[in-house]
Structures are given as structure tokens and as C-alpha cells.
Amino acid sequence: MAGTLDLDKGCTVEELLRGCIEAFDDSGKVRDPQLVRMFLMMHPWYIPSSQLAAKLLYVYQQSRKDNSSSLQVKTCHLVRYWISAFPAEFDLNPELAEQIKELKALLDQEGNRRHSSLIDIESVPTYKWNRQVTQRNPVEQKKRKMSLLFDHLDPMELAAHLTYLEYRSFCKILFQDYHSFVTHGCTVDNPVLERFISLFNSVSQWVQLMILSKPTAPQRALVITHFVHVAEKLLELQNFNTLMAVVGGLSHSSISRLKETHSHVSPETIKLWEGLTELVTATGNYGNYRRRLAACVGFRFPILGVHLKDLVALQLALPDWLDPTRTRLNGAKMKQLFSILEELAMVTSLQPPVQANPDLLSLLTVSLDQYQTEDELYQLSLQREPRSKSSPSSPTSCTPPPRPPVLEEWTSAAKPKLDQALVVEHIEKMVESVFRNFDVDGDGHISQEEFQIIRGNFPYLSAFGDFDQNQPIHAELPHSLEQLQRITLCGWAIICLTILPLMDMSTVPSFSLLISTMLL
Predict the structure, then answer these.
(1) pLDDT, mean of residues 103-125
(2) What GO molecular function terms would the record report (predicted)?
(3) What's the pTM value of the predicted model, to 2 decimals?
(4) What is the per-residue burial (b if ≥16 Cβ within 10 Å, else e) of 30-49?
(5) Are 473 and 502 a contacting pair, CB within 8 Å?
(6) Residues 282-330: pLDDT tens digits?
(7) Which of 24, 64, 175, 323 is deepest in the core (most CB within 10 A)?
(8) CA separation (Å) from 384 to 176, 203, 247?
(9) What number does CATH give the domain 2-123?
(10) CA pair distance 514, 332, nearest whole angstrom
(11) Rounded CA gap, 86 and 348, in Å?
């Protein structure tokens, strides 16, 4: 049956389901795994999973009436394959899991232990939203006290940790998130995808802030050079998604206008920068990127924004059904959608070749939570390098000029509301990490010199005023509950860093409790 299906001409859901059942032999060997996996992944585009489960139950019951034991066992093999290939669907859909349990109970009641044993719904694991962080080696950590300073990080180390953060966020995205985005055209009621997009945008903005935080052109040029080499290492890791974010930050109008800064960047770095930018340019429908991605072997992290655009384009160009009664699904469209989604799904099955330092992950997570508008970034750029009086006249407005036609805008997304537990967890880990890595003599205190070094990781720390040793510290901090509740995760980190010289390790748990209370 599977061999007789012509998807390009369209078929009914029932015909495709029967084709998938017949793709198995009685021993469970699947003759057409591509067809089976495609249908099981893509069926929610056409019918709810609960309806598919009901159809499977109906097929089994009919085959029992027809005394077709072969069809019965093949149906059970398909259910087993479904559970094995897409366990998260059963863990996150209680109604679906209950239907499969009812099928298994029916088989048990009939005494059909052989068929029942094929359906192991009880062993479906709980979906793990967070990957385990590689444990630190205490000896190695002792030798690398400065590893928490972004300015001192080796480009590969920073690239590896950015890869880990984005990969961990990417692994939470499921089929239903893509389906929702494509059908709605936005991230409405899609917090997982929205969070990933927000992280992407945060990386791009963080690159800009790290550059603009430096007061002199040579210092800014050094930061640009550093991030160009980070982008180079991201390419070596075949992480095109974060590469796009970093290059996007470097190519932003707030950075591209800094002519004095660029004059201090070496020709070799400029050439490398241009090559990396050309790789992810939108020219030719991202042709350079697509060719490079197709040649990759092993772990690779595609640019999600590009493939989401492909999904949306297909959704708009081709109908789901080929007839007005919505009975014959568009098999050609299904195959094209599946090809894109399968490429994205494969990413989660390949672990990135990186190891993560938990301390650095916490600090990096906090540092990336710095949200500024386009106007604010451009204002800061103008403060660093004001418009030249000799240059052609321009409007007095600080509205940034159009971006260079290199990168298309990534999907916009609102800043997700932070979870209180997440705030407390990362701040406590960050403070503990700072003490563990910078309290050299182990006396439970951070010196002023060490404080000035570590604060460099937060370009907007000065938003609360420069630390004045002769002035009471409370004068620098928000003074009302309303202000405290509006502070972002980065803001809480700033407060933590500001009071670090006055803290010792014994105060960390109680300080986190204070933060938790303020956020209630």
C-alpha cells in the first residue's frame, strides 16, 4: 500500500495512515521509514493527535472483526514507533496518552499479550526542558580565576558558551511551536519560541553594548576584533544561528557608523569580518549560508530565522488541502514542510562539541538580559562618536539610519516576563561564582580592585551611578518598591555587583531571599 501512494497527487488522511501501517511487516521492520516518520511528525498540521489515535483504534477494531491478525500487529507496531520517535508528544498531551492506554487496556482484556507488549506507554520519560550542565573540574577552575571576565575569555571559550546557551534554549522548541508560529505568523501564545528569539536578539544587542561601553576608539576596536574572532569560532563550531546574532550586532547601524573606531581595526580583521558577513547575507535567499550548511558534517546549528521564513513562505504559497471539502491533503506541501522541520529536529539529536562552565553560564545569562531600544543604542553611539560638523547636514533626530542591506531583521519578539525563581537562581549562582573565582585569599570578601574588574561584564552598570567609596551605597540604588519590581534580571545583577564589596558569602542566601520577597 505504501508503495502505491502518490503524495504529489494528494491523498486522504485515511489512505496515508493505511500506507504507514502497511509500511511495517509482522516482525516490526519498517520498509518505508521516511513515509512513517513524515506522517507521524506532520499529522497535527491536518488533524489533532487525539483524532489520529482514534483512527488507529478504529483500524485495530475493524481488523479484529475481519480476523486480520497481520493488520492488528502492524497497527501496534506503528503505535510503538510513534511513541518511540515522538515521546514528548505523549508526555505533554495527557489526552493522547490516555487514549493509547485505553488501547493497551483493550488488548489486555482480550488476552492479546503479544500485541499489548508492543505498546509501552508507561515508560515514556518526562520531557527534560533543561540539559545537564557539565560539572566543573575544581582543579582546573582554581587555575583559571579570570575565566569569568568576558574581555579575557578566549574567543573559542566564549563561542562555546554562547553555543551552549542557545542550543539549550533551542532544544525546548517542539513541533507545535513551529506549527503555531507558521499558522499565526507571530509568537502569540508561543513562549518557548519567543524566549529563543529573545535570546538571539539579546546576543546581538549585547555585542553592541560591549563595544559601546568602551570610552575610547582603540578600546572599542579591540572589542570589535574580539567579537569578530568569536564569530570565526562560531563558524568553526558550525553554529550559524549565533554567528548570525554576533555578525548582526557588529553590522548594526550603531556600530557601523563609528568611523574613528573602525580606523583602529586591522585590515586582516576587516577582511575576516567581511567574509563572515557575506556568509550570512540575505542575498540570493541566503544562498551562501545554505550551501555551507548543506556541506556540514556532524553537529550544526542552522539559522532558525531563515528556516522559519521558509516555513511561512510555504504556508502562504501552497494550500494544506487540494479540494474544497478538505479531504485530500497536499502531499507535495507536506514533503517540503517535513524536509525543513526534520533538519531542525535533527539538531537536538546532535550534542554540540562544547563543555560549559556553570559559573560562566550564570554570569553570561545575566549579562545578556540587557534590553535597549534601537534609539537608545543609537544615542549611546552618538555619545561615543558625535556627528562631525564637517559631514553633510543631517536631521537633528537621533533616529538611526537604515541598516546596511546585509542582514534581514530577525523576527521581533516582546521581552518575556521573567520568572521569579529564575531571577533568584541566576543571581545567587552569579554571586557565588564571583566569590568562588575572585576571593583569592578565601576571606569571604571581594576587594575593590576585583570588583572594578568584574563589573566590566555589565556595560550598563553605570546606570546606577559610579561607585563612590565616600558615599553611602544606598544612594545609588532604587528607593521604592515600584522601582525594584521593574528591574530586569540584569538590573538585579547590577545591584548584586554594586554591593559585592560590602558582602560576604554568608549573606548570599539571605540576599536572595530579599530579592525573592521584593519580586512578590
Answers:
(1) 86
(2) calcium ion binding; guanyl-nucleotide exchange factor activity; zinc ion binding
(3) 0.75
(4) bebeebbbbbbbbbbbbeeb
(5) yes
(6) 999 999 999 999 999 999 999 999 999 999 999 999 999 999 999 999 9
(7) 24
(8) 45, 21, 21
(9) 1.20.870.10
(10) 58
(11) 13
Query: Across residues 438-453, what is the average pLDDT?
Result: 61
Residue 148 backbone zone (phi > 0: left; psi -120 to 50: alpha; other: beta):
alpha
Secondary structure (3-state) at 66: coil
pLDDT of the residue at 134: 35
Go through 510-519 and write b for each residue having 16 or more CB atoms within 10 A of its CB, e for each that does not: ebbeebeeeb
Grid cell of 174 as nine digits: 517542539
3-state secondary structure at position 301: strand
The single residue listed with the C-alpha cell 508507561 is 122
In this structure, which amino acid lies at residue 91? Answer: D
- At the topology level, CATH places domain 149-384 in Son of Sevenless (SoS) protein; Chain S, domain 2 (1.10.840)
Residue identified by cell 520519560 is 125
User: Could you state, in order of their start, the residue ranges of all structural domains in the chain?
Assistant: 2-123, 149-384, 420-519
Distance (Å, whole) CA 165 – CA 133 = 10
With a CB cutoff of 8 Å and minimum separation 6, the contacts of 317 are: none
Cβ atoms within 10 Å, residue 508: 19
β-pair partners for 321: 329
